[in-house]
UniProtKB/TrEMBL annotation:
SUPFAM superfamilies: ALDH-like
One Pfam family it belongs to: Aldedh
Top class in the EC scheme: oxidoreductase
PANTHER family: 2-AMINOMUCONIC SEMIALDEHYDE DEHYDROGENASE (PTHR43720)
EC number: 1.2.1.32
GO molecular function, one term: aminomuconate-semialdehyde dehydrogenase activity
Keywords in alphabetical order: NAD, Oxidoreductase
PROSITE patterns noted in UniProt: ALDEHYDE_DEHYDR_CYS, ALDEHYDE_DEHYDR_GLU
Active site, renumbered: E267
Similarity comment text for this entry: Belongs to the aldehyde dehydrogenase family.
Every Aldehyde dehydrogenase domain range: 30-494
Record-given protein name: 2-aminomuconic 6-semialdehyde dehydrogenase
Taxonomic lineage of the native organism: Bacteria, Pseudomonadati, Pseudomonadota, Betaproteobacteria, Burkholderiales
Length: 499
C-alpha cells in the first residue's frame, strides 16, 4: 500500500532511511524497495521506494493536470523567477547536496562542490535567464497584392517531459534536463539512476519549498526494464523523452517511444580521442590528458579513452603520464588532496576489470595500474580500481573500440595529421575530441575534419552552457544547451498574418 507524506524520507523497520517518490506534491513510499549502496565501502546508505506502474501513471496524470493549473498560467518571467528560487534553495542546502552526491558515488568532496552541485545551480539559473530573454523568428514576406504578410514564431510547452538520467554526474545531468524543460513551461516526470537517487530526492524537497506547484515536477525511482524507466518511456501521456546513458539503452528507449512518435533527445556513450601534436605545450597536454582520462574515475561520457601522440614525443609523453598516474591519490571522499574515488558499483567495477583482463589478452603493455588497489581497511569492500594506462594495442582491439567508462586510456603513436584524423574518425561513436597543438591553422583544420559533436582545443570539458552539446553516430541524437535546449523543450509554431 502506498503511503504519502510531507517528508522525502522515512525510516524502515531496520532503522534505515527510505527515499521516496515525489508525485503531485507528495512524497510517496511503496512496498517494494531497493538498496542504495555506498561504493566506498559497500555499506547501505538507504532503501529506495521503487515506483510501480500505478505510481508512474499517477505521476504522468498529475503532470498533465498541472499543465492547465497555475503553472500553465505563469508568464515566462514568473517561471524564471521560480527557477531562480530553486537555484537559491540548492545553494541554501549546498552541503546537504554535496553529502548526498558523495554518499551515492564516493567522488571527492571537492569535485562534488566545484562541479556537480555548482553546475546544478548554474543549470537552473542559466535556463531561467535564457528562456526569459530568448528571441523568436520574424519573416516579412511579399504577397501578390503588395500588402505583404508577417510570419513570426512562438514557443509553446511540449507537455509532459520524461527525463531519465544516469549515475555518473547525478544532479548535474538530472538538472541539465529538468531545468530547461521547466523553463519552457513543461511539466516533468523524472527518473534518476537507481545507483544515485539521493540528490534528486533532495531536489524534490527544494522544488516543494520553492513553491513549484504540485504535479509540475514529479520524481519516480526505479530501474530500467520492467520498472519505472520502461513504464515512463512506454507511457502514452508523455510528449517527449530526454535521456543520458548508454547507447544500447538509447536504442531500447527509441523503440519504446516509436509507437507514440515522441520526440527524443539522447546523450549517449563515447570512445573519445585526445590528440597530442609534437608542437603542443607538452606539460599542458600531459595535465590535460590526465584530466580527460581520469576525472571522476573516467566515468564521464566525454573522457578520453584513446590517446594519440605524435611519434617524436610519444615515449616522453607515455613516461610523463606514467609518472603522473603514480601520483594520483585514491582515497576516501573527504581526504585532503584525494584525486579519485571508487567506481559507482561493484557491477560496474566487474565490467571495467573485464576490460583490464581483455587488454592483456589482446596484447597490451600495461604501463600503469591494471588491477584493484589494496588499502587494508573498509575501502577493500568498495568498488575501487587502479587508474590504468595501456600501450601497444592495434586500433582494431576491443579495448580501443568499446566504451569502458573507467579510469583508463590507451596511448598510441601517430605520424601524420591525415592519419590521426582518419584513426579518430574510425569509431562507432562521435561525442568529443581534445586536440593539443600550438599550430592554430592545424587546430581549425583538424577540428572541422573530426566527426564528433564537441571538439576542445588545448583544453577539455570547458563548458559554456549556451553552446550545443551532444554527439553523432552512437553518441546521441539532437543537441541540448542554450537555444538548442529551448528548441527541444518547446513546440515552435509559426503564425502568419496577412497585412
Ligand atoms: N553518459 C554515459 O555515457 C553513460 C554511460 N554509461 C555506460 O553504461 C553502462 C551501464 O550503466 P547503466 O547505469 O546501466 O546505464 P544505463 O544507460 O542502463 O542507465 C541510465 C539510465 O537509464 C535507465 N534505464 C536503463 N534501461 C532502461 C530502459 N530499458 N528503459 C528506460 N530507462 C532505462 C536507468 O535506470 C538509468 O536511470 C556503464 O557501465 C557505462 O559504461 C553509464 C552511465 C552514463
Ligand atoms: O557538462 C555536461 O553538460 C555533461 C557532461 C557529461 C555527460 O553528459 C555524461 O557524462 O554523460
Amino acid at each position: 500500500m502506498d503511503q504519502t507524506s510531507q517528508a522525502s524520507t522515512d525510516n524502515a523497520a531496520q532503522g534505515r532511511t527510505v527515499l521516496r517518490n515525489y508525485v503531485d506534491g507528495e512524497f510517496l513510499s511503496s512496498d517494494r524497495t531497493f538498496l542504495n549502496i555506498n561504493p566506498v565501502d559497500g555499506s547501505v546508505i538507504a532503501e529506495v521506494s521503487e515506483a510501480d506502474q500505478a505510481t508512474v501513471d499517477r505521476a504522468v496524470q498529475a503532470a498533465q493536470r498541472a499543465l492547465s493549473g497555475p503553472w500553465g498560467k505563469l508568464s515566462v518571467q514568473e517561471r524564471a523567477a521560480m527557477l531562480h528560487k530553486v537555484a537559491d534553495g540548492i545553494e541554501a542546502r549546498f552541503e546537504e547536496f554535496v553529502a548526498a552526491e558523495v554518499a551515492d558515488t564516493g567522488r571527492p568532496v571537492q569535485q562534488a562542490r566545484t562541479l556537480d552541485i555548482a553546475r546544478a545551480v548554474a543549470n537552473f539559473r542559466t535556463f531561467a535567464d535564457l528562456a526569459k530573454t530568448a528571441n523568436t523568428d520574424l519573416y516579412e514576406m511579399h504577397t501578390a497584392d503588395g500588402a505583404g504578410a508577417l510570419n513570426y514564431t512562438v514557443r509553446k510547452p511540449l507537455g509532459v517531459v520524461g527525463v531519465i538520467s544516469p549515475w555518473n554526474l547525478p544532479l548535474l545531468l538530472f538538472t541539465w534536463k529538468v531545468a530547461p524543460a521547466l523553463a519552457c513551461g513543461n511539466t516533468v516526470v523524472a527518473k534518476p539512476s537507481e545507483e544515485s537517487p539521493s540528490s534528486a530526492t533532495l531536489l524534490a524537497e527544494v522544488m516543494r519549498d520553492a513553491g513549484i506547484p504540485p504535479g509540475v515536477f514529479n520524481l519516480v525511482h526505479g530501474f530500467g526494464k520492467d520498472s519505472a524507466g520502461e513504464f515512463l518511456t512506454r507511457h502514452p501521456g508523455i510528449a517527449a523523452l530526454t535521456f543520458t546513458g548508454e547507447s544500447s539503452t538509447g536504442s531500447t528507449i527509441m523503440k519504446a517511444v516509436a509507437d507514440g512518435v515522441k520526440e527524443v533527445s539522447f546523450e549517449l556513450g563515447g570512445k573519445n580521442a585526445a590528440v597530442v601534436f609534437a608542437d603542443s605545450d607538452f606539460d599542458a597536454a600531459v595535465a590535460g590528458v590526465m584530466r580527460s582520462s581520469f576525472t571522476n574515475a573516467g566515468q564521464v561520457c566525454l573522457c578520453s579513452e584513446r590517446v594519440y601522440v605524435e611519434r617524436p614525443i610519444f615515449d616522453r609523453f607515455v613516461a610523463a603520464m606514467r609518472e603522473r598516474v603514480g601520483q594520483l591519490k585514491l582515497g576516501f571522499p573527504h581526504e585532503d588532496g584525494v584525486d579519485m574515488g571508487p567506481l559507482i558499483s561493484h557491477g560496474h567495477r566487474d565490467k571495467v576489470l573485464s576490460y583490464y583482463r581483455l587488454a592483456r589478452e589482446e596484447g597490451a603493455t600495461v604501463v600503469a595500474g591494471g588491477g584493484v588497489p589494496r588499502f587494508g581497511d573498509e575501502r577493500d569492500q568498495g568498488a575501487y580500481v587502479e587508474p590504468t594506462i595501456w600501450t601497444g594495442l592495434p586500433d582494431t582491439a576491443r579495448c580501443v573500440r568499446e566504451e569502458i567508462f573507467g579510469p583508463v586510456c590507451h596511448i598510441a603513436p601517430f605520424d601524420t595529421e591525415d592519419e590521426v584524423v582518419a584513426r579518430v574518425n574510425d569509431s562507432d561513436y562521435g561525442l568529443a575530441c581534445a586536440l593539443w597543438t600550438n599550430n592554430l591553422t592545424r587546430a581549425h583544420r583538424a577540428a572541422r575534419r573530426i566527426h564528433v559533436g564537441l571538439v576542445w582545443v588545448n583544453t577539455w570539458y570547458l563548458r559554456d552552457l549556451r553552446t550545443p552539446f551532444g554527439g553523432v553516430k552512437l553518441s546521441g541524437l539532437g543537441r541540448e544547451g542554450g537555444r538548442y535546449s529551448l528548441d527541444f523543450y518547446s513546440d515552435v509554431s509559426n503564425i502568419c498574418i496577412k497585412l
